[in-house]
């Protein structure tokens, strides 16, 4: 995993805004979000997805303010495998809000 990919995963779950809590000497984190919105193509997120650490949401087409150009955006979501990988890398147990 490249440092940029770890940074993207950290941002996706909000770890760059909220800190983990410590209980009995172990670190835990309950994400308040699990998504990263980006324009396509995004090679870093494709690499993360190919490793099974993320899934891609539905592509959306947007028009520029002048209406002349269009671009695609999409949300990427970390999978349980991605949350575990990131947690192991950072030595934190990251909860999955869907399971709790």
Describe this protein's structure.
This protein has 100 residues and is an alpha+beta fold. Helices cover 29% and strands 29% of the residues. The strands form 2 sheets. Strands 3, 4, 5 and 6 form a 4-stranded antiparallel sheet that branches. A 3-stranded mixed sheet has the order 1-2-7. A hairpin with a 2-residue loop joins strand 1 and strand 2.
Number of beta strands = 7
Q: What is the subunit organization of this protein?
A: single chain
Task: Determine the number of helices (DSSP H or I, runs of at least 4 residues).
Answer: 3
- Written as H for each helix and E for each strand, in order along the chain, the element string is HEEEHEEEHE
Low-pLDDT stretches are none
Query: End-to-end span in angstroms?
Result: 28 Å
Strand content: 25-35%
Structural class: alpha+beta
User: What can be said about the biggest beta sheet?
Assistant: 4 strands, antiparallel
Helix content: 25-40%
Radius of gyration: 15 Å
The shape, in one word, is elongated
Report mean pLDDT, rounded to a whole number: 86
